[in-house]
TrEMBL record:
The gene is nusA. It is found in: Cytoplasm. Residues 490-506 have a biased composition (Acidic residues). The keyword Iron does not apply. Gene3D superfamilies: 3.30.300.20, 5' to 3' exonuclease, C-terminal subdomain, Nucleic acid-binding proteins, NusA, N-terminal domain. This is Transcription termination/antitermination protein NusA.
Amino acid sequence: MAMDEILEALKHIAREKSVDRQLLIETLQSGLLSAAKKKYSTAADVEVKFQESTGEIRIRVHKKVVQVAIDLAGEIDYEEALQIDPMARLGSTVPVEVPVGEMGRAAIMAAKQVLVQRVREAERENVYDEYVDRVGQVVSGTVSQVDRGSVIVKIGRTEAIIPPREVINRDRFKIGDPVRALLLEVDKNMRGPQLVLSRTHPEFVRRLFENEVPEIFERVVEIRDIAREPGSRTKISVVSHDDRVDPVGACVGMKGARVQSIVRELGGERIDIVPWSPDAKIFVSRALSPARAIDVYVDEEEKRVTVVVPDDQLSLAIGTRGQNARLAHRLTGFAIDLRSQSQMHAAEGPSGGMPELDLDELAKELGPRTVERLVKAGKETLQDVMRTSVDELMAIPGIGEKTASRLLSLGGQILEERAAAQAGASDSEDGADADVAPADGEDAPLAAGSAPAEADDGAVEASAARVETAVATEEAPQESTQDAEGAAAPEDEGSHDDEDQREAGA
């Protein structure tokens, strides 16, 4: 290669790879030095100089002057040395010029390999320095390759990768498609693309809202927490630091324009925007939207809440495959025990004094195998089932979300019917004995439908507690919780477990 070609090649590499020219020159010298030592000897005293102005490369081997050279790699005849340096003396050294062409093909290839390797390292260091401070931000690029679930993205002069686990299941990328993602990691040591991107990370949603909603970017509105199941549904809690700004309205935008832009970016992922509250009762009830909470009982110590919802909204509160309750749990940090009204009534009072009921009625509706599973889990009576939460029932092998909901709904219905029948029988007996005079020292029997004064006081207190809780819940108006798809609609409850349906049919 001519010297001017070498010089031009170095300029081209420096320009295209954004690598410092001086670093390239030093690398070239290092590569040629390595090649020269490979040709002569690792112990040889070799000097390599590159003249940048002319592109000239000079390689010199310093050899010892001896009377008769035996080791030609490190020695030179005295007579020959005098031709190079008339002042040469025996035992001294003289620099012997070595033409680059005499280095041999293998040596030149070794030098080239050193240069290429160093250029790669320098390039990776430049990429690292450029992007390391942008971790956690959204970057944009163009899809250059889709390979076995991974997406390779061209960003400027470098490439990034979205691993399969970081791709939303709704994403369908083609070569040339524009793409936005969160810069998750920069690693200058890994092979292949060193920028790792994510479209599934919760922070990606936060950054998209920051880009789309000026109030969030300016810190007037704050996103407190995010709970996300990528490609399906996300819940975010927001709070305003300015009383004049509605945090939910700011995120939704005029006619939903802001949030819809984010929904489109996420491939139709549903987004619930929940007003944050320091009151756990209010916050949890809002987080369970679109379901409406009637009562919320909070155990701050255990970070656990029991939420009572109308019977017809239990499935809505749980969500498809438990998603709504699961996301509400992640968003609030509270373990949520969902109960229907009838379940709470059955557990608290109507079954009081009632004998433990077997599971025959449930077997008629849901099949004997479901009952077998309950018995194996230690739920031998109907009251045992009603004292169990949906999550606990779903933890029993073979019982899914829909079956758990039906169990509690049917159980509550059966207990209420039995309680009503028991109360009717009791009223009949009281009516028959109403004219019987009390014996001396005995209190008069109560009229049918009456209750002792103590019971009335307790009922009033319980009623007041429920009203108080309901008021607290209503302070979190359901209409303020927005869904990215518009008005909240009951979720598709899906079908029951096939096996349970077959049993019930049988």
